[in-house]
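User: Continuing from earlier, I have the next pair ready.

Assistant: Great, send them over.

User: Here they are, in order.

Assistant: Folding the first of the pair now:
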Amino acid sequence: MRGQGLIILGVAILVGLAAVFLANSYLGRVEERQATTPRGMAKVAVARVPLEFGTVITPDKITLIDLPMDTLPVGTFSSVSQLLPMNRNRVALRPMAVNEPILRSKISGEGGRAAISAVLKPDMRAAAVRVGDVAGVGGFVLPGDVVDVLVTRSPPNANGGGQITDILLQKVRVIAIDQDASDSADKPVIGKTATLEVFQVDAQKLALAQQVGQISLVLANPSAVTSPTVETVSVEDLRDGAYVGGYSDKAPTYQPPMPYLAAAPPRVARSIVRPPSADSSTVLIVRGTKDSSYEVRHYGAH
């Protein structure tokens, strides 16, 4: 009995070893197939799960798929180790859907964080403006939208008086509302601050406009064409379907008085009384360069 048990135990060990060998061989072939890229294809790291703005990218959120080499976007990663060298985490700066390629432009640097500066173009600046419920279009202005910026102010030299509204900037991209910079939001959010992507001089205009007036945002179609000329609206234009367009912010120019010698002589009337006769007198009336004589009889003369 004891010898028979040893034989059964030995057979079980052999069967187990054979099973392990077969399993390792199968898994090795699967990994080899996965590592082998078909001709004309390339391995690309994509999102295994949806990645929102600020999500820390870890190996469990990444998978590799084969994509045609001639259709690869710029900035892809061919391996997890290339994307996360030394297991240094990166952060998503743009929302990414499942199986969407992870691009360098959509993530932070190694060990980075979700910073607004990372999503700015090299020649652009991020400028924050105060907005309210009305100025922010009732919360429908969201990150990723395009807006026009209006400024309402009281000019110092308004001919008609009152306030005016100017178009300060056109087709400006909104990169954040309050602390939310994710452009995947689809519900209105009432925010107190909007961060806009603008040129440096436009950032200066925004800073000055907030000191002299009130900022308002107007939603624009991203495909809309900017107007080369903009108008100023004053209180005189507040009529349905009417635009006067007569506002001018130019101060009245000073007109110096004409020299005395160049001024035209005033046209005055003066009378000259000549020596009287017995019953009448002659009166000479001079008007400018013309004169006229009139015979005036004395009072009570016949």
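And the other member of the pair:
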Amino acid sequence: MRILVTGVNGLVGTRLAAALTVRGHEVTGLGRGPRRFASADAYVSVNLVDEDKLTVAVAAARPEVILNTGSMTEVDACESAARDALRVNGIAPGILAIAARDVGAHLVHVSTDYVFDGDTGPYSEDSVPNPRGVYALTKHIGEQAVKAVGSSWAIARTAVVYGWPPAGRQNFGSWLLESLRKRTPVRLFEDQYVSPSLAESVAEQLVELAERRLVGVWNICGAEVVNRVQFGQALCAEFGLDPTHIIPSRLADAHLKSPRPRRSGLRTDKAAAELSAGPLKLAAALERFHRIVRLAEGAT
């Protein structure tokens, strides 16, 4: 199958392209700037906000499926650069949906739990979004654009994706692991509940959405909802690190530029029931994370 992956230099994109290649698919990767990973058969440098180049790249690749992992994910940066966030998170998904329709491709668009306000989580696929802040609002706009102009699509909402090694910049899991290994005190929110998601597990679930051309909204994330302190404590237990370096804190004390949902966890009943590569429990995900870290560090 010919599959195009946007954001192929990113955390999920690298794992996704690698998993698709192993399964025998012909993978074209789109990313910003030079190619940083060798996980796709072909690579095209394209900025998602460049409508003409993006459309040409899709037409040239002739994909049967498009997986859109490209996104502006730095929440506070989105608040400061709202125009850029709107173009990448809101407008580009619609452009991709039209391009996918034109070539007869199925589009799997990766979104976020932040489309919810976090007042009444965890949320199912049928819950009504109520985004707060520029990042959340633009991601919601992207979802609506895909629904409005796409002909064959799936929206995959994920949350707090972590993996090793980092891709470009630190993610929550890699930052936390490095900090705790150095015995650096870390402040983690005890009042924000999330669905931590191992990048490899997210990629495997996305592969299944692509291969089966599944449609509709899917929660593609970890199987358990925990607060960030609990995640840190579980990581310490798996890696044999000292949990006393974790300092519980509260969202209000951080004075963040953009609002964060307090209870934005996602329910994974649908994915668990219908996907072979289902969501992982936290202990299983961290055990796999540990194996990945050992392999990566053993190879360097």
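Worth noting for the second one:
The chain has eleven helices and 13 strands. Residues 18 and 39 are 5 Å apart (CA to CA).
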